[in-house]
Amino acid sequence: MKTKFTVLCGAALLVLAAPALAQNYSTAALPAPTGKVEAAKGASVRRVDKALDAVIAPNAKIEKVAGGFQFTEGTVWHKGELWFSDLRANKVYSLSPTGKLTLRLDHAGGVDSFDSRFYRGSNAMVPAPDGTLLLAQHSGHRIVKLDDQMRATSFLEKFEGKALNSPNDLVYAKDGALYFSDPPYFYNDPVAGKTDPNKVVGTQKTNNVYRFKDGKLTAVITDLPRPNGVGFSPDGKYLYVSNTEPKSQVYRYDVKADGSVTNKKLLADWTADKGAGVPDGLKVDSAGNVWATGQGGIRILTPEGKLLGQIILPEVSANIAFGGADGKVAYLAGSTSIYRLPLAIAGQKPMYSR
Questions:
Q1: 167 preceded by cis ω (within 30°)?
Q2: 122-165 pLDDT, tens per residue?
């Protein structure tokens, strides 16, 4: 049995074959998401170190700019707008600075439909060197390439002859290599509530971070139980990786000349911290500070792991993106909503941002 992957772009329609899922789940009764700029109730910035003032001005206010989603993820600044996935609704949207919301892709995870309590839609996006946009698909177990007309072609599907688990986060290095995490969240069962994070894996024996360059796919990290968010320091010397579970941790690696990584360093451990959320999405600003989601909100760390502050939202945040014309806006994916915060410094935009 096959299902469809539907791409919306005016009247254009493209259907790709993809493996089917066992169950459907109707979301017709849910209200349609909307874009609306308003004050973010219950959101705040907790300042731990005075140095945070150079990153986020003391008078900066958090706004809510869109809402009504099921679980926002995969945020990226692209073509003057914020693009993001609704991971559980199987869709991709874009949001303009004025709050205009556009549905860009339906069935974005690689299948027609699935029980929306599962995290089986699309996730991260990143602009590629040739001007296309790469999209991670949990249900498709692959990364696809989308051109300007949103026509999709397969980009990466297998490692050593076996399907990928569920590609999650994507980032390009300065040498043009693509790095991405591949945890097994397609296979988790949040409905049954019996998932053992120590045992669940997909078709791959380990949940890896990969490097792809010159047609060669290499597993550069194989010992993390749940690698998730990935990001580079501005000079490209360090790779940061979030580990979601069973321990809530962020690691830093030295990047070698050949693209492999070494000198694994534990940057932060929030396993014992209280609050909703887990280490998930991760971004690095132009000063080298690491913005990482986790229990209780988004933490901002120096390259050595010193905590500068924490952004607290009224819901769980799974990802961050830097945008705006000058890169001085932080967009925060807050599960059912998208928030934004003006910055005093620029964040890093994707390597091939357009």
A1: no
A2: 999 999 999 999 999 999 999 999 988 888 899 999 999 999 99
